[in-house]
Amino acid sequence: IAYSSVGHMGLVISAALLQTPLSITGATILMIAHGLSSSMLFCLANMNYERTHNRTLLLTHSMQTLLPLMTIWWLLASLMNMALPPTINLMGELTIIASLFNWANITIILTGLGTLISALYSLHMFSTTQWGGIPPHHMHIITP
Fold it and tell me: What Enzyme Commission number(s) does the record list for this chain (predicted)?
């Protein structure tokens, strides 16, 4: 989750350093969006910890089977983190990317690569925590 925060804040810092009205607007939008999506992801990670007593997200498999309603929240938070339409993250990232592209054309490669890596990380995080077989150390969650 912290890796996506670093990616979002990298875009915010680059927009703030550019200091155009469009980039400042994009930075403001992305900061608000980041506050919403990261808070939701950290809250869900804490809920996972409270149920599994394990802070490593890679060791939590098959939460979709164990906690189906929480899977919906993980999906929404991951989609928001990936900046899929119609989320506010998409508006902020597109505004920043457009202002950076107006400044220097080469930035489209860097921001595109950063956005791709962030999206792949979010997909990996969602798929590892929600799918897979139920590990034996999670059996206490479903037993009464």
Answer: 7.1.1.2
